[in-house]
């Protein structure tokens, strides 16, 4: 079992790693050229990684992506095409993770939830970061 990839019109909209997915060794599901790396780290008992840091390297990011790792509760993530059509609804529960790669998205909370959220920064404030969109709810 690997990441669930959600595509529409040949464009990757999201990837989901369900709580039950297990890998024997570290595996990234995003391509190496992606501005956001998404995967699972896995090592056998006794593994030790030497102290290190990551080399500074100038990067230009134009495709802001966001990731949630669900800790508790249940949500539905709605994915929409660029023209506002509903592409897919994905229900997530504790331990599930999603990276939002492309397109319009919305969040509907089914049960009180908490998730770790990760995205590229800096955060420019809601008025400079988000664009509200009128969408169509039918697939």
Structural notes for this entry:
By secondary structure, the protein is mostly beta strands. Helix content is 3%, strand content 42%. A hairpin with a 2-residue loop joins strand 1 and strand 2 (11-17). It is globular, with a radius of gyration of 16 Å. The two termini are 27 Å apart.
Secondary structure tally, helices = 1
Summarize the amount of helix as a percent range: under 10%
- Quote the CATH topology: Jelly Rolls
Q: Which class in CATH terms?
A: Mainly Beta
What class would the helix/strand composition place it in? mainly beta
Parts with pLDDT < 50 across at least 5 consecutive residues: none
H/E element sequence: EEEEEEEEH
* Cα separation of the termini: 27 Å
Beta-strand percentage? 35-45%
The biggest beta sheet is recorded as: 6 strands, antiparallel
Q: How is the quaternary structure best described?
A: single chain
For the record, the count of structural domains works out to 1
Q: Would you count the extended β strands for me?
A: 8
Task: Present the secondary structure layout.
Blueprint: E1 4-8, E2 11-17, E3 27-28, E4 39-40, E5 66-80, E6 86-92, E7 97-100, E8 104-119, H1 126-129
Antiparallel strand pairs: 1-2, 2-7, 3-4, 5-6, 5-7, 5-8
State the gist of this model:
By secondary structure, this protein is mostly beta strands.
Keywords:
single chain; 139 residues; Jelly Rolls; six-stranded antiparallel beta sheet; two-stranded antiparallel sheet; globular
